[in-house]
C-alpha cells in the first residue's frame, strides 16, 4: 500500500531540491563563465561584458592554444603521467590489498596498522625532497608517479572489496590447479572491475591535477605538466603572439585572459569526459567496496 508523503517529508524533500540546485549552480556557473570568456573577444573580456554566454564570438583563443607547442608538450606530459601513473597505482594497490585481504596471510594486521599510520602522519616536505634527490628522481616524471603509488584510503577501499569475494571461489580455483597469478588474472580481476574503475578515476584525477609535486621536483620547463604551465600563464602573462602569423594577423594586442580561459577549459574537459563512460562501474564500486559484511 502506497502511503501519502507527510507534510514534513514534503517540506524536507523540497528543501533538499532547492539546496542541491543552488549547490549545483554554484559549481556550474563559474565553469560557464570561463567557457564564455574563452570564446569572447578581448574587448568584451576587458570591459567585463561576458557573463555566461560568449560576446563577439571568436575562436582565436583556442587557435592560439592549439598552435603553442609548449602547451601541447605539457598536455602530453599530463596525459602520460595520468595513464602510466594510474596503471602503476592500480597494480600496486591491488598487489598490496589482495594478499592483506586473505586470512592465510599472517602478517596482515601489522601491514594494515602501518598503512593506517601513513593516513595520520605524513612525511615532511624536506625529507621527501632529499629522498627524491638521493634516488635521482628529481627532474624525472617518475617523481610524479612513484611516491604516491599507493593511496592509503584507496587501499582500504580495495581491501574491503577483496574481503567480500567468497573464499570458496578462491579455493575452487586452487583445486582446479590455478597458480596465484592465474587465479588473480582469471578470477579476481574480472570480479574487480567496479572497484578498479572507481579507484582508477580517483587516481587519474589526482594525476591530471598534479601541481605541487611538479613544483617541488621538476625544474625543467619541458617536463612541466599542464597545471604548472597554466600557473605560468596566469601568474606571468607569458603569452606572446607573432603579429606576422597568418592566424593571428591584426590581433597582436589580444588580451591574455581569453587565452588563459581557453587553456583552463582544455585542462578541465578531458578528465570530465572520462566519467560518463565509467559511471556505472564507479557507482557500483563505491557501494560494494565501502560495505563490509
UniProtKB/TrEMBL annotation:
GO terms for cellular component: plasma membrane. It is found in: Cell membrane. The keyword Membrane applies. Signal peptide: none annotated. Residues 75-278 form the ABC transmembrane type-1 domain. One of its GO terms (biological process) is transmembrane transport. Pfam families: BPD_transp_1. It comes from the Bacteria. The keyword Transmembrane applies. It is a multi-pass membrane protein. The chain crosses the membrane at residues 12-32, 77-98, 110-130, 142-162, 183-205, 258-278. Keywords: Cell membrane, Membrane, Transmembrane, Transmembrane helix, Transport. InterPro entries: MetI-like, MetI-like_sf. PROSITE patterns: ABC_TM1 (PS50928). Belongs to the binding-protein-dependent transport system permease family. This is Carbohydrate ABC transporter permease.
Amino acid at each position: 500500500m502506497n502511503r501519502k508523503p507527510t507534510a514534513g517529508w514534503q517540506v524536507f524533500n523540497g528543501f533538499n531540491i532547492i539546496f542541491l540546485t543552488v549547490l549545483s549552480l554554484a559549481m556550474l556557473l563559474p565553469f560557464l563563465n570561463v567557457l564564455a570568456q574563452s570564446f569572447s573577444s578581448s574587448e568584451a573580456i576587458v570591459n567585463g561584458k561576458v557573463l555566461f554566454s560568449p560576446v563577439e564570438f571568436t575562436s582565436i583563443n583556442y587557435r592560439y592554444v592549439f598552435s603553442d607547442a609548449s602547451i601541447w608538450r605539457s598536455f602530453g606530459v599530463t596525459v602520460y603521467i595520468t595513464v602510466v601513473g594510474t596503471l602503476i597505482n592500480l597494480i600496486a594497490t591491488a598487489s598490496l590489498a589482495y594478499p592483506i585481504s586473505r586470512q592465510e596471510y599472517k602478517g596482515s594486521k601489522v601491514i594494515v596498522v602501518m598503512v593506517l599510520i601513513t593516513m595520520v602522519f605524513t612525511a615532511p616536505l624536506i625529507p621527501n625532497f632529499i629522498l627524491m634527490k638521493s634516488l635521482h628522481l628529481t627532474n624525472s616524471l617518475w617523481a610524479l608517479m612513484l611516491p604516491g603509488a599507493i593511496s592509503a584510503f584507496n587501499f582500504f577501499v580495495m581491501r574491503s572489496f577483496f574481503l567480500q569475494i567468497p573464499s570458496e571461489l578462491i579455493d575452487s580455483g586452487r583445486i582446479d590447479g590455478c597458480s596465484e597469478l592465474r587465479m588473480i588474472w582469471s578470477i579476481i580481476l574480472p570480479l574487480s572491475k567496479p572497484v578498479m574503475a572507481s579507484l582508477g578515476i580517483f587516481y587519474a584525477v589526482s594525476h591530471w591535477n598534479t601541481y605541487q609535486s611538479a613544483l617541488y621536483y621538476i625544474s625543467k620547463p619541458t617536463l612541466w605538466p599542464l597545471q604548472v604551465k597554466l600557473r605560468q600563464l596566469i601568474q606571468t602573462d607569458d603569452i606572446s603572439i607573432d603579429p606576422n602569423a597568418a592566424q593571428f594577423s591584426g590581433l597582436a594586442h589580444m588580451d591574455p585572459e581569453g587565452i588563459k580561459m581557453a587553456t583552463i577549459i582544455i585542462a578541465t574537459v578531458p578528465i570530465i569526459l572520462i566519467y560518463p563512460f565509467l559511471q556505472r562501474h564507479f557507482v557500483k564500486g563505491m557501494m560494494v567496496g565501502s560495505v563490509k559484511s
